[in-house]
Amino acid sequence: MEDQDVVVCVGLLFLQQQLQSSRRRRRRRRMWVHDILRARVQYGEFRLVQEMRLDGTMFQAYFRLSVEQFDSLLSMVGPLITMQRTNYRLPIPPDQRLYICLRFLATGDSYRTIANSFRVGVRTVANIVNQVTRAIWDALVDKYMPTPTTEDWRSIAEGFRSRWDFPNCVGSIDGKHVVIKSPDNSGSLFYNHKGSYSVVLMAVVDYKYCFRVVDVGSYGRTSDGGVLANSTFGKNLQMGKLGLPPDDLLPGAEHLGPQPFAFVGDEAFPLRRNLLRPFPGHQSGSHRVFNYRLSHARLVVENTFGILTSQWRLYRGVIEISPSNVDACIKATCVLHNFIRRTTSEDTALPTAAEKDAPGLKRVSRVGSNNATHEAIRVRETFMSYFTNEGAVNFQPAV
Q1: How far apart are CA 298 and CA 207, in angstroms?
Q2: How is this protein annotated for GO cellular component (predicted)?
Q3: How far apart are CA 298 and CA 277, in angstroms?
Q4: What does the pLDDT look like over 192-243, one tens digit per residue?
């Protein structure tokens, strides 16, 4: 009996020593911040950033914002991304968090590449991008992408009439597949007919290349008719809840009667009373004139997507982050696009054909069924008649 007690005691003592040794090993491996990362301010990207602030051209090429625009953005976003200071470690300041997020959006590099460049942890970069993109949207959307009012729609229509020769047009609409990495355990939910995984970005753009409405997050596999029908914009358009102005006369064509204010889209969109699309196939005569004038006005949304992809190279390849964070990044780049255009005195250069065809931003083939009502057909015929007679311009093709 005494021998058994001795064996038990020895066994318990051995287990206690092993447990203490294991705890010591864990304590030696655990650290709040790696030694290499502690020197990020002295040797990391942040030191380069401070030097680039003295050269506005280099700074803007690196972050897509001028120094003044960055400081203005920081004043709005800073309070939302400032972390609480603790006794264990100092938080990353809001300006450095904004630098990291903008650099990720501007390059589309992996989290690890950004982390090594700025000397922060990979998980830290992921958390920063997740937090800051949402803060950018929350801080800017009310001022730089507010919900259009009736007067806003009327002002947009006047801009399309004077600049793009298309009266009663309240916006150019288009949709794009934003290519993403296949999410874990998602099956075919995000798999689209183009053979890639994606989420859908649908946008309405005004005559100044600014986004007025964006709808993000539809699954890549969503049926052709479901993209527009399931979007908030599509539902409000269908129910007449967008606040569009009442029907108005076309300039110089009072005999045609009041016509509705409408959006212009390509052949992927259905024909509706407030949504015009071109005549299908190869056309001639009056149909060709209408297609040309509609394409001339619709080009503004193609150019806007081109400007977006040339500024934010996140769209130049496959986005390898979770779908929820992809949605936040897309919304952040769209509202930043408006912020840049409205705080820049000179117009942005239009994109090249290569920039319009970004690998990570693919065209949506169809977003709605083409079962047009008689009223929608009548509206398109009226605009066609107007463009070939009272509203003709010298640059359109001959009838």
Answers
A1: 10
A2: nucleus
A3: 10
A4: 777 788 888 999 999 999 999 999 877 666 654 567 888 889 899 989 999 9
